[in-house]
Amino acid sequence: MNILRIARKEIIQSLRETRTFIFMLAFPIVLMLILGTALSNTFTTSLVFEDLKLAYKIENADAPVSGYWTEFARSLEQNGVALSLLSANEDGKEKVKDGEYAAYAEIKPDGVEFFGSTKQTVESDILQGLVASFANRYSLAAAASRTEPESLAPLLAKAGSGDYVNETSLQADRAPGSMDYYAMAMSTMIAFYACMSASMLIRGERLRNTALRLSAAPISKGELFAGKVVGSTVVNFIFVVAVVAFSKWVFGADWGDHYGAILIVLFTEVLLAVSVGIGASYLFKGEGASAAVMTFTQIASFVGGAYFPIGDIKGAIGALANLSPLRWANEALTKIIYSNDVQALWPAVLLNVLFAIVFLTLSILFMRRKEAL
Amino acid sequence: MNVLSIRNVTKTFGDFAAVDNMNLSVREGEIFGFLGANGAGKSTTIHMVSSLLKATRGDIEVLGKNIAKHPKFAKSNIGIVPQDIAIYEQLTAYENVEFFAGLYGLRGSRLKERTEEALEFVGLGDKAKSLPKSFSGGMKRRLNIACAIAHRPKLIIMDEPTVGIDPHSRNYILQSVLKLNQMGCTIIYTSHYMEEVEEICTRIAIVDHGKVIAEGTKEQLKSIVTDTKEIWIGVRSERNIDVELLQKVPGVISARIEEGLIKLQSKAEVTNLNEIIQLLIQANADIRSVEEQAPNLESVFLTLTGRNLRD
């Protein structure tokens, strides 16, 4: 009963603390908005062009290649390329230089000459690929007609089919957009920020002189400790859930379908953070605890991918990154949300609980040795 | 019956003995004054009685039971009013009292009743739903008391409960102490204000260097200093007065200046007033009054410890 009473007090105290609200709610939401908006291009895998403009000239309209080109041009137009046939007195290269077209092609009886723009490189590269594909197919058809004329018909029949390029994506079906990523990253970061307030759980009682009253009350140190851990974990988890809910309903972040698994990962991360915070308050004296926790949190956030996505890093930084609880949590959440791999929660949950037990045990040992609170 | 018995208690921090073989008894129904200068061992003793610290040696009994063997019993019967205000700023006055009273095992309607009663007792009944940040220093001190009494302890330890508050609140608190005592509570009261201790305490102990150096009623303590006299000389100008010179006058034990008043303690049998006045005239002090004071606790303290309580 005393444990619940102390836990309730912790929850009420935190919920009425304006600074806690700003730090645990406003800060991650604002950061999510800023980073999610500013770095949105980093997460986009497609490019959108208004027009792909290709100018061309046909040197000899009676040559076989011009017939195939006409078929090809029709197919390109169907796929959104704007083709312009230039007259004999127009200079296609100059028009590309002026930026009027992304590329210019001259269709000659012996092949195709292509001129790409250095200003619109992406558009030019795409058109070059398409034109090269046409040229290869025409060369193949021409060679076939010389040696085996009967095979020419099926090749040419495909000339206007449009399947010049077969695209196979190596990426998963779903990938996070910037807001999705930062919703997840900020939630795991703020879950770990619980260690900062937790580092003040016992010290705060000493600073506001209530430690004397608590020590004088007929409750055990164990009850007090348990009440504080429960209260702090619950209230910080409430903040994390609020951040998740806000990101989902206000920013439209994608949290997938497995909310149970996501909340379990976040809850155990909060528990770990609270344990680390309390542990630090016993391992380091006075202000040292807050400084140590702040430093560790910032490093863990940075290498854990809170501010930008972290890939596979080698060397010392990579080893450091693997020690970040945020990295465990982010990896687990990514798999749960984007690969529907619910089992991915276990490594993160087990690591969180294991380290929480270690830090809580250390704190209990230190607390028992200490005469006062 | 003794509510509190301290027997041969020592508390050391490294080589330093903050409390040195202390013996003390507080009887049921007393308002027991516990006096000592800073560092005398007063707070350490209070912390040991309230179980914040453990005695290195010796026994402490509350209502006849050893606190080391029966900590819950002892703690349940003690209410502590710490020197520094110990409340939660984010909880309302009601929630503060309810939280601490709840830790003493009060539940449900009894908890509600006692919480309201404690707030009414300290005059904060109408402020139950307010947060302490809107309170004056005096109101916070009263809430500090309410948090200690809601569980109706038999022994209340009040450590400097009137520090830094206005005269109205101080008077309210002193009246509350007397009322609590009439209701059957035994009170241990520490203060730097001698007049408060003289006004409300029935028995007093003076602590110095971790030991009780004198114990008794006000009258008993004052009788210790019959061989000294206290002379107060009012002056208009204290600028040129040399206190060291006054202390060299034969018979003078101590001399100090407090807001236009020269307070001298002197041996009773020595006639030295003429010499003192001569020195003050030479210093152009412009004397306006000369009084010989009856012995008070301050002079007792000064005689026994050689220093002022506020030192």
Helix content of chain B: 25-40%
The proportion of residues in beta strands of chain A is 5-15%
Determine the most extensive contact between two protein chains: A-B, 23 and 31 residues
Got a strand count of chain B? 14
Summarize the structure in short:
Chain A has 2 domains: 2-37 and 175-368, no CATH class; 52-155, D-Maltodextrin-Binding Protein, domain 2, CATH 3.40.190. Chain A has 16 helices and 4 strands. Chain A has helices at 2-15, 18-38, 64-78, 92-97, 121-147, 152-157, 178-192, 194-198, 201-207, 210-216, 221-249, 259-283, 287-303, 315-322, 325-338, 345-369; strands spanning 52-58, 81-85, 103-108, 111-116.
How would you summarize the topology of this molecule?
The complex is a heterodimer of chains A (373) and B (311).
Chain A: H1 2-15, H2 18-38, E1 52-58, H3 64-78, E2 81-85, H4 92-97, E3 103-108, E4 111-116, H5 121-147, H6 152-157, H7 178-192, H8 194-198, H9 201-207, H10 210-216, H11 221-249, H12 259-283, H13 287-303, H14 315-322, H15 325-338, H16 345-369
Parallel strand pairs in A: 1-2, 1-3
Antiparallel strand pairs in A: 3-4
Chain B: E1 2-13, E2 16-27, E3 31-36, H1 42-49, E4 57-62, E5 65-66, H2 71-76, E6 78-81, H3 93-102, H4 108-121, H5 137-149, E7 155-159, H6 167-182, E8 186-190, H7 194-200, E9 203-208, E10 211-216, H8 218-222, E11 228-235, H9 243-247, E12 252-258, E13 261-267, H10 273-282, E14 287-293, H11 297-305
Parallel strand pairs in B: 3-8, 3-9, 6-7, 7-8
Antiparallel strand pairs in B: 1-2, 1-4, 4-5, 9-10, 11-13, 11-14, 12-13
Could you walk me through the main structural features you see in this protein, from its secondary elements to its overall organization?
The complex is a heterodimer of chains A (373) and B (311). Chain A has 373 residues and is an alpha/beta fold. Chain A has two domains: 2-37 and 175-368, no CATH class; 52-155, 3-Layer(aba) Sandwich (D-Maltodextrin-Binding Protein, domain 2), CATH 3.40.190. Chain A is 65% helix and 6% strand. Chain A is built from 16 helices and four strands. Chain A has helices spanning 2-15, 18-38, 64-78, 92-97, 121-147, 152-157, 178-192, 194-198, 201-207, 210-216, 221-249, 259-283, 287-303, 315-322, 325-338, 345-369; strands at 52-58, 81-85, 103-108, 111-116. Chain A has a four-stranded mixed beta sheet. The longest helix of chain A has 29 residues, at 221-249. The relative contact order of chain B is 0.14. Helices cover 33% and strands 30% of the residues of chain B. Chain B is an alpha/beta fold. The two termini of chain B are 35 Å apart. Chain B has a six-stranded mixed beta sheet with strand order 6-7-8-3-9-10, sandwiched between helices. The model of chain B has no long low-confidence stretch (mean pLDDT 91). Chain B has helices at 42-49, 71-76, 93-102, 108-121, 137-149, 167-182, 194-200, 218-222, 243-247, 273-282, 297-305, and strands spanning 2-13, 16-27, 31-36, 57-62, 65-66, 78-81, 155-159, 186-190, 203-208, 211-216, 228-235, 252-258, 261-267, 287-293. Chain B has eleven helices and 14 strands. In chain B, α4 (108-121) runs antiparallel to α5 and α5 (137-149) packs parallel to α6 (167-182). Chains A and B meet through α1 and α10 of A and α2 and α3 of B.
